[in-house]
């Protein structure tokens, strides 16, 4: 084989490979879009829950302060243990 024939075969192989990848990726995009639309049609959207948070009472605020103190102590102990 001459070098011109080798280059020609290389270019043909390159174009065939790039074309195959392009067709595969295009098909993948369309199939993924089809699957997405199918799932959206089959699955009902979850109802939106509009629960208002309960007001924080004085005892719950005390629990928050205690939680902050415990977390601060844990972080301090972790950092000093190294």
Automatic annotation (TrEMBL):
<dbReference type="InterPro" id="IPR023424">
    <property type="entry name" value="OadG"/>
</dbReference>
<comment type="subunit">
    <text>Heterotrimer of an alpha, a beta and a gamma subunit.</text>
</comment>
<keyword id="KW-1133">Transmembrane helix</keyword>
<dbReference type="GO" id="GO:0008948">
    <property type="term" value="F:oxaloacetate decarboxylase activity"/>
</dbReference>
<keyword id="KW-0472">Membrane</keyword>
<dbReference type="GO" id="GO:0015451">
    <property type="term" value="F:decarboxylation-driven active transmembrane transporter activity"/>
</dbReference>
<keyword id="KW-0739">Sodium transport</keyword>
<keyword id="KW-0406">Ion transport</keyword>
<dbReference type="Pfam" id="PF04277">
    <property type="entry name" value="OAD_gamma"/>
</dbReference>
<keyword id="KW-0812">Transmembrane</keyword>
<dbReference type="GO" id="GO:0036376">
    <property type="term" value="P:sodium ion export across plasma membrane"/>
</dbReference>
<comment type="function">
    <text>Catalyzes the decarboxylation of oxaloacetate coupled to Na(+) translocation.</text>
</comment>
<dbReference type="InterPro" id="IPR005899">
    <property type="entry name" value="Na_pump_deCOase"/>
</dbReference>
<keyword id="KW-1278">Translocase</keyword>
<dbReference type="GO" id="GO:0015081">
    <property type="term" value="F:sodium ion transmembrane transporter activity"/>
</dbReference>
<comment type="similarity">
    <text>Belongs to the OadG family.</text>
</comment>
<keyword id="KW-0813">Transport</keyword>
<protein>
    <recommendedName>
        <fullName>Probable oxaloacetate decarboxylase gamma chain</fullName>
        <ecNumber>7.2.4.2</ecNumber>
    </recommendedName>
</protein>
<keyword id="KW-0915">Sodium</keyword>
<dbReference type="GO" id="GO:0005886">
    <property type="term" value="C:plasma membrane"/>
</dbReference>
<feature type="transmembrane region" description="Helical">
    <location>
        <begin position="12"/>
        <end position="34"/>
    </location>
</feature>
<keyword id="KW-1003">Cell membrane</keyword>
